[in-house]
Amino acid sequence: MTNNPWTPIADADAIDEGQAIEVVVGDLILAVFRNNGELFAMDGMCAHQGGPIAQGKVEGGCVTCPWHGWQYELATGIQTINRQPLMKTFDVREQGGKIEVRIA
Ligand code: FES
C-alpha cells in the first residue's frame, strides 16, 4: 500500500475500448490502455529496445510491441515468452471524469 497521490492524466473518454494513449508523468512515459472495460498502465517504452508500447496491438489481455513483437500481460507487465516482469505496471483508475495514475 502506498500513500503516493493520484495524478490525473486524461479525461475519462480519452481512451476508447481497446485503445491506448501515451502520456508523460514526471520523467516517465506511460502507456495507458482500456481493455474489456478495465484500465491498465505500464511503462510506455518497451523493455527490449524502447518501442512505443501504446501503439501495440492489444489482444487477450496482452499488448504486443509494434517494433519486434515482444508481448506483455497488461495486468502484470510479464513478458509472455520468458515469463519475467520486464515492464513496470502502475495503479490506474477513473475518478470524477478523469483517468488517474499513481506512481509508486
Ligand atoms: S522494442 Fe519492443 S519488441 Fe523490440
Automatic annotation (TrEMBL):
InterPro entries: Rieske_2Fe-2S, Rieske_2Fe-2S_sf. Keywords: 2Fe-2S, Dioxygenase, Iron, Iron-sulfur, Metal-binding, Oxidoreductase. Gene3D superfamilies: Rieske [2Fe-2S] iron-sulphur domain. Residues 6-101 form the Rieske domain. One of its GO terms (molecular function) is 2 iron, 2 sulfur cluster binding. CDD domains: Rieske. The keyword DNA damage does not apply. It comes from the Bacteria. This is Anthranilate 1,2-dioxygenase ferredoxin subunit. It comes from Rubripirellula tenax. The gene is andAb.
